[in-house]
Amino acid sequence: MMVLVLSGFDPSGGAGMLQDVKILSALGIRAHGVISALTVQNEEKVFSVSFRDWEEMKREIEVLTPPRVIKVGLARPEVVKNLREMFPDSTIVWNVVLESSSGFRFQDLGEVREFTSYADYVVLNNEEAKRVGEHENFIVTGGHEKDDRIRVRYRELVIEISRVPGEFHGTGCAFSSAIAGFLALNYPVEEAIRAAMELLRKILERSSSVVETEKLLRDWHKYDVLNTLDEILPEFLEIGPLTVPEVGQNVSYALPWAQSEYEVGKFPGRIRLKEGKAVAVSCASFRDRSHTARMTITMMRFYPYMRCTVNVRYRKEYVERARKKGLKVYHYDRSKEPEEIREKEGQSMVWMIERAISELKSPPDLIYNEGWWGKEAMIRVFGRNPKEVLEKIKLMLKE
Ligand SMILES: Cc1ncc(COP(=O)(O)OP(=O)(O)O)c(N)n1
Ligand SMILES: Cc1ncsc1CCOP(=O)(O)O
Predict the structure, then answer these.
(1) What's the helix, strand, coil split of the chain in %, to 5?
(2) How remote is the CA of residue 75 from the centroid of ligand 1, in Å?
(3) ipTM, two decimals
(4) How far is CA 263 from CA 150, 254, 258, 269, 304, in A?
(5) What number does the ligand 1 atom closest to the CA of 14 have?
(6) What pLDDT shows up at residue 146?
(7) What residue stretches are annotated with the Thiamine-phosphate synthase ThiN domain (predicted)?
């Protein structure tokens, strides 16, 4: 699936090509991109624009796969006519940008008016539509400034959704690219508009002053973490009778940017032994506090790629095999723990990991201790991901 994008380059990434590519990527669509203008701008203000010559752009377009759908952003209006002549059967979505949201005049009204009929759909706001003069291929966006509704109309279709409060640089670019994307997914135009509005709402709910589409893509990692945990759980259950300690076991796997235990996937209720079999009380989730999640967060403060921690019951032979097989083992001697650390709930493990790292000068594969008053002896295994940790545990189990 591909959409050819001709749009300006906004170095701030809020509008133009960088935004177009993010939106299409969020729909799993590849963008072929030809820059049609260079701008000097930031999130707040546009300082200058210089449009590229058509002949230069044409040479770049000619060597690309002919597109079914084309999205045009900030470009000389005759570019739309030139594209129509090159690709008479392609669907062209043109996001007219007369002025930037910061008031910079991008395009000449008369020129825009002369070329709107060459596009299948022209996306512009209420104000621009009035100035250019309504046309049946217009998709007109606009809000009821007095209330909290956003209204989009196309011919007889009028769709209203609740407005996400705030002003966001790049909304028009993002919305028109989303329409182009859904058209490329064979949505009829009315459905493409509806779906684009819904997608924009989800993005704006995560955004501050710029359309932060990249935050939407972060959500994929949440799915990936939980899916990875749920998929590998049966392998941990299989070896559970040899590894699950009295207190229960957890497999904690953090999001790449995690700084809180709630950004770490784990099994609330833990993995426990029941009649000799290991069972998980729940499927993976980010909810609940977790010792292993806090250990993971601590480890990531020093080694951000070490995103997984699993606790295993202590057996002397496990530690000996780990050492023999070249794993980096650290012995945590609880008797050396300062009183003030021991008294604070949850601080021991942080202190333990910090000690291990300061002595080993590299990430430990496992840290063990033989137990303390009311504390079960335990092995904690660390790694990049659950698969890697599972392999380290299997090394400890095997003669
Ligand atoms: C390169 C480029 N293209 C388009 C714009 C317009 O962005 P903005 O001013 O935020 O308007 P909407 O995209 O929100 O309609 C730009 N500034 N730069
Ligand atoms: C209690 C405890 N202490 C160190 S690991 C462990 C078991 C797993 O704990 P959690 O489920 O809180 O990560």
Answers:
(1) 40, 25, 35
(2) 12
(3) 0.81
(4) 33, 6, 5, 17, 13
(5) 10
(6) 61
(7) 235-394
Q: Give, for 8, the enclosing helix (H) or strand (E).
A: strand 2-9
Q: Where are the domains of the chain?
A: 2-211, 218-397
Helices (H), the chain: 16-26, 54-62, 78-86, 109-115, 126-132, 171-184, 189-204, 213-243, 291-302, 316-324, 339-343, 347-360, 386-397
- 2-211 adopts what CATH topology? UDP-N-acetylmuramoyl-L-alanine:D-glutamate ligase (3.40.1190)
145 pLDDT band, cuts 50/70/90, is low
Q: Spell out the CATH class of 218-397.
A: alpha beta
Question: Measured in angstroms, how far is the CA atom of residue 6 from the centroid of ligand 1?
Answer: 14
Residue 373 pLDDT grade (very low, low, confident, very high; cuts 50, 70, 90): confident
DSSP assignment of 186-219 equals T--HHHHHHHHHHHHHHHHTT-SSB--HHHHHHH
pLDDT in tens, 330-352: 999 888 888 888 788 778 888 88
pTM of the full structure: 0.86
Ligand 2 contact via 290 beta carbon (within 6 Å) = yes
User: Who has greater pLDDT, 371 or 35?
Assistant: 35
Res 144: pLDDT: 53
Tokens, residue 6: 């001709």
Here the tokens at position 124 are 């512009």
Pocket test residue of 10, 100, 211 for ligand 1, highest count of atoms within 8 A of CB = 100
Has residue 371 got a pLDDT over 80? no
